[in-house]
Amino acid sequence: MRALYLDLAHPARVRLDGPSLLILRADRARTRHPLTRLARVVTTARVDWQTEALIACLERGVPVVFTGADGRLAGLCLGATLREPGLGEWLDDFCRRDDWRPRFEDWRLAAERRAIRSALAGLGLAATDLRPAALRNRLDAFLARPRAPAHARALRRRLEAPLAAQVAEALARRGVDPVMPGLARRGLCLPHVMRRIVAWRLVPLAASMLREGWVPSPGERCGAALVARYEREAPALERACRALIDDLWDWLRNTP
Q: pLDDT under 50 in the chain at which residues?
């Protein structure tokens, strides 16, 4: 299974053609992508989606992430059909507790601190301040030398869109539907929480790209070069997603 990126220089249309997505463009031949081979889809505002094509993705458990004109994450679509039941029910039961919010926040903070320490260690930096906001500013400044920190922030935001799709896919495979009523009523958006934690794993990739001279341009979103670099790291990021989900599941099962 693979990811499909629909970040096109010219408008395109996505239509359902039997068990496949059909991509139509005026400047090149049509392409067909069987839904059974798709892990996730990342798409931009310049792509016109047929409702039936989007529904087919949702019915088959293929997450679809939409990015805005600036390449940032705009929204996420997940279907009600999940591939592996289990963790969703655990989460729903846990969120019925009166003390679920502070307990869950304890787990989130601990998981994010571990991810932060890993990112700092990979760059050879000391862990002097583990507050996420302070660390993001510090890492942006470090990564962008001698360029402006704005370049590092722009790159980080562009990388987070395909990561959102990968996190959503990993959760769907483990039986988590973030729009299930039990979670939504309690204000838990697990894909957002998990993406923020796993996003620290993008720091080494951003550092490498910036060293090679990557500079954002206004028209670039999930361009081919960025996608190619991201997909080279996708297996390691998938392992990080799975490890984080496993950690959450173990924590839920062992929380008194």
A: 84-85
Do the strands 28-34 and 12-17 form a parallel or antiparallel pair, or are they unpaired? Answer: unpaired
Classified by CATH at the fold level, domain 2-77 comes out as: Ribosomal Protein L15; Chain: K; domain 2 (3.100.10)
What is the tally of helices (H) and strands (E) in the chain?
9, 8
pLDDT (0 to 100) of residue 84: 47
Distance CA 192, CA 24 (A): 31
Q: Which helix (H) or strand (E) holds 24?
A: strand 20-25
Query: Each residue of 129-183: pLDDT tens digit?
Result: 778 777 777 777 777 665 666 777 778 788 888 898 899 888 888 777 655 656 6
Helical H segments across 87-218, by residue range? 87-94, 100-123, 132-144, 149-173, 181-184, 190-198, 203-211
Q: Which two tokens stand for residue 39?
A: 């892990």
